[in-house]
Fold these 2 entries.
Entry 1:
Amino acid sequence: MTALALARADAPAAPASAQPQRVAGGLIDRTRPLAFTFDGRRYGGFHGDTLASALLANGVRLVGRSFKYHRPRGILSAGSEEPNALVELRGGARREPNTRATVAELYDGLEAASQNRWPSLALDALAVNGLVGPVLSAGFYYKTFMWPAGLWEKLYEPLIRRAAGLGRAAGQADPDCYDRTQAHCDVLVIGSGPAGLSAALAAGRAGARVLVVDEDVVPGGRLNGERREIAGRPAAEWLAATLAELRSLPEVRFLARTTLFGVYDHGAYGAVERVADHLAVPPPHAPRQRLWRITARRAVLAAGAIERPHVFPGNDRPGVMLAGAVRTYLNRYGVLPGRRIAILASGDDGWRTVADVLAAGGEVAAVIDTRPQAPEALRRRAEAAGARVILGGAVIGTRGRLGLAAIEVVDGRGVGATIACDGLAMANGWNPAIHLDSHLSRRPAWSEAIQAFVPSPAPGGMITAGAAAGRLTLAECLETGSAAGAAAATECGFAAESVPAPATDPESAAHTPVWRVAHPPGRRASGKAFVDFQNDVTANDVALAHREGFRAVELLKRYTTLGMATDQGKTANLAGLGLMAELTGQPIPAVGTTVCRPPFTPVAIGAFAGTHRGRAFRPTRCVASHAWAEEHGAVFVETGLWLRPAYYPRAGETDWLQTVIREVETVRARVGLCDVTTLGKIDIQGADALAFLERVCANSLAGLAVGRTAFAFMLREDGFLKDDCSIARMGERHFVMTASTAHAAKVMEHLEYGRQWLWPDLDVQLASVSEQWAQFALAGPRARDTLRAVVDDGFDLSNDAFPFLACGAVTVGGGLPARLFRLSFSGELAYEIAVPASYGDAAWRALMAAGEPFGIAPYGSEALGVMRIEKGYAAGPEIDGRTTARDLGLAGMVAGDKDFVGRRMTDRPGLTDPDRPALAGFRPVAVGERLRAGAHFLALGAAPSLGADEGVMTSVAYSPSLGHWIGLGLIRRGPERYGERVRAYDPVRGGDVVVEICAPTFIDPDGERHHG
Amino acid sequence: MAEAARALWQSRSPWVGLARPGRHGAATGAPGMHVALRDGLGLATIVAADGCEAVLADRLLAFGGLPEPGKARFTGERGLVWSAPGQWLAVAEEPGVLSGLAEELHGLAAVTEQSDSRAVLRLTGPRAGDALRKGVAVDLHPRAFGPGDAAVTVIAHVGAQLWQLDAAPTYDLAVPRSFAGSVWRWLDEAAAEFGYVVAVR
């Protein structure tokens, strides 16, 4: 019964059905056996097991290798705090690294693999890292890999990353779906142990809407892992009765397998539900996980407590576990984690393990209490069981190759002994799980009574109860839980009463924790004493940090990595603080604590994204002619949320430029149709509508008659251009503003700001009609002929009756309302026609059919852009928030005789400086050369420098009409320099072209065509 | 030619190519939600002129009067849904019902035709609320939101208007027409686990 027997337990022969460590009892369902594999070997377990309990049942204690030293590691805990037993679950695209075996529910066919080992778990080549430990101590990479610096990225970092690590990501797209939803409640209860259930009962009975969340599969918390009595009966009976009553309350809801991972401002909480993680593959239409956004008026934190390990040499050897975990494996899972178990206790609570081990048929080798005294009754019971009892003692070392075989102990007088055992249960007191209470930066308070941090007593946080509040005994959990639930419900306006707490079996929480198990003087320490198991941080690393001056708690964390990584130091942080307190001679609260932030435990990014992944990352808006465009093979471009047809390639066309040239030529020679539904359309009505527009726009609208359209532009309050737009006067008090696609929403906000805040006295009403009207631009010499076939008879479309800039209501398709505007963005004879959006598709098809005799072609946003550059019209690239009306040649339009938004600021010296870059056209001197937007202008022969910069090219296009590239840009004193040559210098793409400055209007400068 | 052109003038539902009649998602058990496509409704925004709300309320008695903020008031299929301070969405079974409204309320309110601007769905059934909860942050519990309640909110990142008609529960959901594809894709995923049935009006 020593090392030999233990080696056999880890030997590679366990048959699938044999579970040598399985004992009677527990909450598992023995009628539902399950098969699973670990590192390719088959094992058996039962429904209700976790991967950890099933591995232990099969005698598997070695489950992983540590992060840095590749030391053999086993299972420390039985909950979500687990730092060691991280495994990869599943295979292929569903492979999931760093899963804690202690919370992974077993299912039939589960595939699990250990991580961070090579070539195998039992024989890990990198365990040699353990031998060079002194080199790899805290901060080693800050010191060791300093020279030569160039090797850091190429050599050192990749090597370190390969050697020290966690699991491997799947590397393939996740085949499962994730869901997001919301819940609202009066009282959110976090945790379903005795405190949480008591709180839920008190609040639920008062009629409050109660939501109970628990990360565990079954409610009950520690009651499932302990053998306790409530009201003289087994606690399971109280649990069943309480759950039955809660289920009968219609407003009480329970979410199992749901981790509340974050607390946010204004009563918002984040939780993740593992809907199908306990299955190999989610059922059809079910998500794998569901993210809950919970809004609660009050929250009760009843998240329990996390037991503290002891820090002593060799405390990481597989087989060394937390005492509460040992009891959980015994009582909940029917698994004896070792045949002969020793207990290292620093309080009365650890002694409870004695009876549980005996009841499960195990042997108690020894109870070592670090306190010089322990209650006589506990001691007598242990000795009666044959256990050796050592008071004032210490464990100073462990033995066993891949698992615990013996411990080395000393008694209070310094006399040493070696005790054979294959399990060691550590009971060093409990830390309240206060993480969630500190997510909003509330600092916890130190409790001398339990030697742990407890939630801040300051108001404004959650109501805490039970062990999470530092009230560790079952009786206190029942009592404080009920009181917390009643208080929470009362604060929500319900008449709630605390439920009288039933009596429990006696219990003592007395303990005196030790931050480092005392080492007798004169004896050599035999091995590393781990503080943080997951990051391989030892007591010596904390001492090193202290010696090197990294004493502040935040520095200690960064220097040693104590408390980082997936477990965030749930079992480590306080020991680290305790050690630093001893080293600095301060009390622990003076050392301080680091801040807990969300998430409490890791959350998959997929759960945050939910259904919004891939193309659905954000919503997509489709234009009215989208279906037609898809049918005809259009190529789309994203413009904000819009998906716009960019161009419509035809058979035989091999590149986009060829298509765009053809589309431009069609518009210039015949007729083209373009979907401009994306424009922002705003309906403006009211007695003061015109006065309102005059205050919003910088140009005068005084002459705007009913039936006419005006080009207009708005300034921001700081005097820069905001957007250009067209304003159509549809009636005496009715205007329609058309804003650019990119600025549509901002313009609407701007108008609402003016209406609601600047001039509430004006009688004006606004309505967005962007979605109501589908709008198409029909452009080209045959535009009128095409339109004639679509607009109902009786409307005179002649140039005299409906000249350039006319607007009006017409009907189409035999009586459908439509709005017609004679506007041109291409420089050709052009109209924009708006029809009710339901008829957008029909109108597009009707216009295409009507234009067929005239050679109509659709044109996309690319051709639209080319033609506006040919005409020298400023658009988004020029109206970029840094240009003024004067910069873009609009100074003459700015009204001098009225007040408007931005007027005061337009006269600032910086905005009227004649040296400011101003709009001009550019053409390459060598006709074949290509221009690039973004190129900077330099004087010929000037060396490129910031000081020599004269401006920037904003828009370029290949002009089919001219047969060469053309550009618009902003250059110092541009309009005064036509004919001058400058360099367009683009070092990023290697462009350096001599260009001639010219007027920005390349085509039809007198506008004869659009007036025609 | 004219006849052929006229035949082209068919209105198009925003849900074409998205919603298919029949059962979708989980195939077993009673469907959790029924979806009706509410095409062809009459919709208009009503924005009260300054100080005219009281008179406006009288004039709109045929619609049941002006609902309070956060409320919708319906008589049959006709009603008003509060949209913003001083603003309402008028809803009718077909656009013609609202065609005289602008004239009728001249000087009291700006009436703007919006019949084509929204894609509207009617959602009903035991899991309709659960499906909606996946997109809206509004508390839909009967204590917080019931028949006659309305919300201007965001669903799946799309601005939306939602109002409840009865305790079944039945909701009407209106979203901007151009977003219909994204909203439908979201709805399909949200309701799949409950199973849902699409009926065409």
Note: The radius of gyration of chain A is 38 Å.
Entry 2:
Amino acid sequence: MTDVVIIGCGVIGAAAAMELSRYDLDITVVERENDVAVGTTKANSAILHAGYDPRPGTLMARLNVRGSALARDYCAALDVPYRQCGSMVLAFSERELATLRELLERGVKNGVPGLTILSGGEARTREPALSDAVLAALWAPTAAIVSPWELCLAFAETAVKNGARLRLNTTVTGLERMEEGWRVHTSAGDIETRYVVNAAGVDSDAVHDMAAPHSFDIKPSRGEYYLLDKAEGTRVNTVVFQCPSERGKGVLVSPTVHGNLIVGPNAESAEKHDLATTARGLDFVRETAKLSVPSVDFSKSIRNFAGVRANTGRDDFLIGVAAPGFVDLAGICSPGLTSAPAIGEYAVELLAGEGLALKKKEHFDFQRRRVRFKELPEAERQALVERDPAYGRVICRCETVTEGEILACLRTPVPPVSVDGVKRRVNAGMGRCQGGFCAPRVVEILARELKISPGDIVKDRAGMNILAEETKGGGSRV
Amino acid sequence: MYELIVVGGGPAGLAAACAAWDSGLRHILIVERDRELGGILNQCIHNGFGLTWFKEELTGPEYAHRFIELLARTGVEVRTDTMVLDVTADLRVHMTGPATGYRIERAKSVILAMGCRERTRGAIGIPGTRPAGVYTAGAAQRYVNVEGWLPGRRVVILGSGDIGLIMARRMTLEGAKVLACVEVMPYSGGLTRNIVQCLQDFDIPLYLSHTVTQIRGRDRVEQVVVSRVDEKRAPIPGTEMVFDCDTLLLSVGLIPENELTERAGVEMDPRTKGAVVYENMETSVPGVFTCGNVTHVHDLVDFVSAESQRAGTAAAKYVLHGPAAGESVSLKNGPGVSYTVPQRVRPQNVEKAFNVFFRVNRIFGKSEIVVRARERELCRFKRDRLAPGEMENITVPVKLLEGVTGDVTVEIREV
């Protein structure tokens, strides 16, 4: 019998797993997909919000501010790309200026440090590309940008290194209350456990209903984005928001930790797994973003994508004990990524309240480093290639990712099985050619290292096979 | 210290290095990121190469091999499996490779011959899902011709560039069903011979003034939606056609790969997306030359070889005899012309005549290419037909530039 089963390994499930792995516990994380971080975690604005948005007094307010501070420390400890670049919320009218004052007041109540309202001129001095129509801006110095999937990977890897079991390709089909604890029915057999944590993202309502009376519905909201070439990556230096409305925090223009520019999202209600972009949605994103930053050059787009947020129609996360020994971490909409580390901590607290005995591990391994060849100084590059020639072979030209880095990520505690899995770990294929050159070589490396046929290599999820069949001459026969 | 470092061992780099050797340089290095010389020609196993240069019809690998054989007779040093990461304005070339290690080599001159890459789905923003099964035509070509794998069985091709057309035929020969080739412009971007030999001969329909407006399918492409477009290339509602397919190939343009060029501080031309070059393929940075598809996208490799030979000869002249002298005139594109290469000509540096390569921006019938200095006409050339898919080339006697200062304009007049 395991102590805790966590359902879902997005950033929330991974954070909970990592926090629990600080203690002497038997932890099992089950994830439906073939990798971690593949739901909402990988498709969002990649922002760590300062914390002026949530209504004071809510759990969301507390976890946002706490999460923002924790994320900063965790990113440093676990080598996750992070940059505290600050954010601005723009006001274009007196009415929006009133909204800024309201946000400022909320922020102060929530304990957000350093908030100030800048005049339009001050805002443009700081951010010259802003529109002349900007009347004022709320400046939040603690807002940051992050690699969301690497944050999740770092949490998941840390959990696994500290003893947690990660069971991928495992779908939970039912939960059964036992005398003591729960029987978790999955597509890969049953798991008996004392406690269950529901971190199932957009499907957290369905998982909740397996354990407790129906009490909420996830009403997903889809957001569509543009990702622009690095040539546009310094168009702005901070996260530029527009005033929030009921539909969300509006269209933002922001640098990414990878050096690109991200623009989006819109907010449309959608089916749970509908990740399609639309011409209408993308038009809206472009037009709306240009109100903030008119000079964004959308001809430099390298990718569009869409993500779904697990909205519930309420203005707080749905976190709590829903049944004996069953904790919901549900309705994690924005600012979920920011709050994740604090949600992980809080999950431990809730489980302790349910009777989970916590005994700190003597040795908790809280370190993670990976080689980023591109960022190394010349002398270190030289030494590295001399030591291991695989670091001399550049596989992804656009992002300068070497074979050594790809081989290294295959030896991490949560290794990739797909081309996109490699991309999330080492950035191969993230650049301007979008894998046009390196995808065939990543397929080749994966097939060789995993000892499977190239025909079985998938782009991302199971079923996303890249190659159909061997040619008449045949790849394996030449 | 090398006399010349050539970045890229494709057709451009090979021809440039051979020419530089023939012109007297003896310390030349070619740096090639792939494991073999030849560049993208190695995956172009169809024929049709070399008709102009070798006066015979060769496959891509054969064409490359001719130059590799010529190179083997020289003392040019080659480092394969080695990627250049940086070229500085003072001509230090940073490179890395498993056998090479991480090294910085100095050179008296550098020829940039990195070629081009393909435009992607993200660049043109096709809405819909993001399943497996969407490839650039060149990536598909690599899978089929080099790796020996067919990427899909029912195929729609967006864009009628040459690689897309070639892949329509190639996929068909491998047993795939190519349902349609879809082109947003009212004319094809590829060579006429490829339209005939790769589409018409296989009964593959070409939909001009159409584009893909949606991709459907969760794991693998299941359908694509194709719509007709108006004169402004906007999709016309109500014209949607749905194709059941598992693959979408994109042949929607090539972009010169100039990240190194830009980092070296070379002046760029937004029209070609390559360096601004003089008549001898020299850039704005002394000693740095560029040739081939990194300078402007060519239609035929034969022209790449010719251009690169000039670059190699010029680099040798630069190293052995010093910088080229003389004032320059600028070439401007007049009506009908998308760009010109070179963009600048130094008459003092031209012996008899110089070549101007350019593309037109629409289909023209019987026309004349007119070269003028302000209102004074310098020369004109007759053509029966001009198309954007085919690169044009005129030879202008240098004596016509006598007394010309300022700009020279190239324009098209339909007659």
Note: Chain A has a mean pLDDT of 96.
